[in-house]
Amino acid sequence: MPLAEHLRELRNRLVKSVLAILAGTIVAAFFYDQLLDLLTGPWERAIDNLRDSGHPVKAELTFPGIAEPFTFALKISLVAGLVASSPVWLYQIWSFIVPALHRNERRWSLLFSAIAGPLFIVGFVTGYYVLPKGIELLISFTPEGVANLNSLSDYLSFVLRILLVFAVAFEIPLFVILLNGMGAVSAKQLAGARAWIIVGTFVFAAVATPSTDPITMLFLALPMTVLFLVAELVAFLVDRRRAKRDAEVGLVGVPDDEASEIRIERDVRDDMPSPLDDDDTGGSRPAP
User: Which site from 50, 92, 118, 161 is most exposed, i.e. has the minimal number of CB atoms within 10 Å?
Assistant: First the structure.
């Protein structure tokens, strides 16, 4: 396909994606009240827990300006529209890229998508589940007699940041498996660095989560640790299969930059008698 055709196809797929997002945003606007309840649910649970524990707290979600309610409604509808229309625009991206992939690359990309999607959703839901604990701890530092007033736009950004941190963190073990599949990291290297990786995971969880409570950190660090151990097991199985394949073709001990079946076939052909070699009678062997 010439470059102009590629650009036309890209334009068409971008238009379809934008229309899908626009339609999803319009539909989400009709469910604004339900989306607002879903967004403010963790905040209300956190405040109720503080008050039930006897902590006097005055905290409210506010709109700081006259036009802020309208702007916030557009923002939350757009976020919901992006999520709702994700199957459409993800399919458009996939359809534009897949013709350039080989069959093996398509299979690996489909496997990656099948695993990455559920992991992203699990991380997103986990972040939403632990969000009230983080809010409760942060609000508890408010001194008595001081009101904690938060803009709904700032609160939305805070919630999305927490959820995205959890969702992306759950994808890290998948990238470890991809690096192993490309030969960049071996299972032996992962096993040797296991202790440091686990410590780094807990440090990442402590830094990535804006709340300082250990519960939120553990809810992020423990699943990441388990997923890393699963990734290490998968890497071990992949390395064992790769070693078995190399043994069958005689590539054991051959450096990666020299491991080529073409080189082996050439070596086999070099060992075969040449058509120009003399035969047993002293004459020249005819070419086949």
Answer: 118
Calculate the alpha carbon distances from 287 to 187, 243, 268, 271, 273 in Å: 50, 39, 18, 17, 11
Going from the C-alpha of 177 to that of each of 161, 204, 229, the distances in angstroms are: 26, 19, 11
| Residue 244, C-beta contacts closer than 8 angstroms, at least 6 positions apart | none
- pTM as predicted: 0.69
In this structure, what are the phi and psi dihedrals at residue 278, rounded to the nearest 5 degrees?
-70, 145
Nearest to 159 by CA among 35, 52, 5: 35
What digits encode the pLDDT tens for the residues 268-282?
444 545 444 444 554
What is the spatial distance between Cα 136 and Cα 248, in angstroms, rounded to a whole number? Answer: 59
Structure tokens at 80: 């919901």
Reported as a single tens digit per residue, the pLDDT across 138-180 is 888 888 778 888 888 889 888 888 888 888 888 888 888 777 7
The tally of CA atoms less than 13 A away on the side-chain side of residue 262 is 2
Give the integer Cα–Cα distance in Å for 180 and 182: 5
Domain spans of the chain, in order of start: 1-161, 171-249
Rounded Cα–Cα distance for residues 54 and 112 (Å): 48
| Rounded CA separation 117/167 (Å) | 10
